[in-house]
Structures are given as structure tokens and as C-alpha cells.
Amino acid sequence: MADNNASDTLSVAVLGTGIMGAAMARNLARAGLDVRAWNRTRARAEPLAADGIRVTGTPAEAVDGADVVLTMLLDGPAVLDALHRAAPALPPGALWLQMSTVGPEGLAPLARFAGEHGLRFVDAPVLGTKDPAEKGQLTILAAGPQDVRERAGRIFDVVGSRTRWVGEDAADGAASRLKLVVNTWVLTVISGTGETLALAEGLGVDARDFLAAIAGGALDLTYLRLKSELILAENFPASFTVSAARKDARLITEAARDAGVHMDLVTAAAERFRRAEDQGHGDEDAAAAYYAGFDG
Fold first, then answer.
1. What 8-state DSSP symbol labels residue 241?
2. What is the pLDDT of residues 79-130, one digit of tens each?
């Protein structure tokens, strides 16, 4: 499906309408695109109908006649399962924007699927969580051929504020590898924030004194303060869940192992996220891993 034959109004199938996918679908609909959406749990997608989005019962219904397929699901196996279910209705030459965090190993079978079904494939994981997704201010890390970038850009410019192209062959995994590097830093900050505030609690130190001590200096971070406020309020509306953080930690450690790199901090973070999950915090914001610092 060549870009120069594209209609003025793109039809986009969004597969996966969780925290990120729902926000992206709404922004695309508000921009005047024809959006149809599918989610494994349909009830989570139903509210999108109020935004003029056609909610479908199957991936095949969503992709039927679509110019663009956008996947935003938990991991590689979930993406591959959705595409297999969509396969009978996939338009030949459709543009597939794979925007989930799947890691290099998870990407390989997706790229094979794209080749086998004649899809134009772009690997495009995103940076950002709920708030930037809702505001259309995500950063897209993308890899794909030059001749699809204009069409992909029509989607990326709606859901994001910046796109960084890092390669022309999506299957090479440059975008997915970069996403894991970035998420290593994200998980480091989340875990460090939780441990620091847990230690403050244990030692009887006012966490506000810690935040005041580093205010405005080289050690201060906006993300540290955002996560600290959730912990101090003991309220964890999810923008990036504990369970998703644990999944990303697994992808990072697997990729690092294959590259011969020891990841001591991320390995420890994965254990903290596991404990927080076991304590019942899996669906809360990843900052709730703070509780992994305590028994019970």
C-alpha cells in the first residue's frame, strides 16, 4: 500500500486499549481519523465509542479495510496472538505500527509475521506514560523504511510530540533496543525513589526533608518528585503499572544476558516489582513497589 495512493482520511485499527492505547485511539479520532478499536477485555474499550471510535469484538473486525494497524499490547506474545487472529482480514500492504514494548527477542516473530503477510512494518515503541499519552506528547522511537515514514508520521504526529527514527529495517530491532536502554533508566529511578523513601520511613526521616535537601541541585529530578508524591499520598493511580514494570525488567535482563552484560540494578528491581505484585499492587503505579521495602 504505497503512501502516494493514501486517501485523505486514514483508517486506523488500534489493537490494545489499555492505559496507552485508549489515549492514543482518542487522539487519533479527535484528529479526524477513522478509528476502530479492539481490546481483549471488550468492556475496557467500550467507553471509546463516546469518542466516535468503532469498538469491535475481534481483531479481524478491527483491521478489516484499515490503512494502518497500530498495536499497543502488553508484550510480544500478546501482539502476535492478536495479529494471528486478525490475519484473515489484514489488507495486503497495510502499514503496521508496532508500538508496544516487546524487546528484541519478542520483535523477531512479529517481523516474520509482517513479511509473511505482506505488511509494511515499523517498530515504534514509545516513551511516556498516561499523561503524555492523553496529551499527545509521547516520544516515538521508530525504525522502518523511508517510503512509509510520511504515512507513519501522520499517526505519530497525532499521538506524539517527537519522533526519533533510528533505522530503516524494523526487524533489526534498533528501536526496541533503544527502548530497553531508556526503560533501564526509568526502572532505576522508580526503584531508587521507592527504596530511598522506604529507608527514610524506616529511619524516622521526613521524606519532605530529603526532597528539600536535593531541591534544585544536580540530584533533583522531575520524575523522582512525581513518583515521590504518589508514595507520600499513598495513592497510586496507574500510569505505568507494577506488573508492566516487572515485564520490562524481564525484557531488559533477557536482552542484557544475550549481550553479555550484567544488570545488577535491574535484576534487583525485578525482584522488588515481584514482591509488590505478591502484595497485591500489580495494577497500581510502579511507584507502589515502595511497599516491597517492608514485610507484609
1. B
2. 999 999 999 999 999 999 999 999 999 999 999 999 999 999 999 999 999 9
Cell of residue 238, nine digits: 496507574
C-alpha cell of residue 148: 512509509
Q: E strands along the chain, which residues?
A: 11-15, 34-38, 54-55, 68-71, 95-98, 120-123, 126-127, 138-143, 160-167
Where helices occur in 50-129 by DSSP H, the ranges are 59-63, 76-86, 103-116
DSSP characters over 181-210: HHHHHHHHHHHHHHHHHHHHHHHT--HHHH
Instruction: Please tell me whether residue 285 adopts helix, strand or coil conformation.
Output: strand
User: Is 0.70 surpassed by the pTM of this model?
Assistant: yes
CB environment 159-178: b (16+ within 10 A), e (fewer): bbeebebbbeebbbbbbbbb
Give the C-alpha separation, 106 to 76, whole Å.
5
Q: Is 8 exposed, middle or buried (0-12, 13-18, 19+ CB in 10 A)?
A: exposed
